[in-house]
């Protein structure tokens, strides 16, 4: 397919795709992504609000689509509205309560902001032209990670729900929001899985692992992912105009953690930036140990992948087999 057929890229979700929205909002100096070493491999080097050493998967995706990385939807700016927007915010999830402590922007609020944008676009372009623009655009949703982290770290949540009922709760909140995106005009939608959180340096450290991924955590995530994939497929059959793709970042990351050398990495489960055995005992800051070459690591910090890992994620979404991008990859989706 011809990548230039896609006029705009719209992004929603959490820190896996946040390019600076939370940075605008958060007064918390806790937000390390506002400082080096975050962004140290970015061009030009410096923190952008991305939770990595450089680019995220959606930055690479924008390059493939021959578009600029979408402007942040929560920054005051009007230019480039027809090339897309990024509404993602670190710490957020499908549930409104997820990340409330960090004053994040939940998916529902991200969709509110998008709805406003749709209305103003319809006013300036006319309803028909606006809906044609949206129908040709690509929509990426990457979230759910923090909903799952909330279950791992929050005793209250675990007291209230067993893993299966919690997964059901998150899914019951996820689907109406994906359907709302369709109602607002999205026709080409890419929804990413939750990652293998049981392999993150943070979780290995929390459970005092010897290096094995935490099975119970990954099982819960995998079960959520398969329900998400199935629900997405049924949503697409209910809405014939919707082309919905499930992006299986979970299996790619899991494989990279377990067989790093297959992907050109040296370290599968050790963060480039952090403290302790897996770099998972502290947040990444200028007080941490920072590796020389982030490209040798799957993880940049205690939970987030490196730019190099994000590049592989983007590649798998764009041109991966059905096991990675289902039922179609992005190249096929936009053909």
From TrEMBL:
UniProt-listed SUPFAM superfamilies: SGNH hydrolase
Protein species of origin: Selaginella moellendorffii
Lineage of origin: Eukaryota, Viridiplantae, Streptophyta, Embryophyta, Tracheophyta
Top-level taxonomic group: Eukaryota
Family recorded in the similarity comment: Belongs to the 'GDSL' lipolytic enzyme family.
Keyword Hydrolase: yes
Gene3D superfamilies membership: SGNH hydrolase
Protein name: GDSL esterase/lipase
GO molecular function: hydrolase activity, acting on ester bonds
Assigned keywords, A-Z: Hydrolase
Pfam families per the UniProt record, alphabetical: Lipase_GDSL
Protein transport as UniProt keyword: no
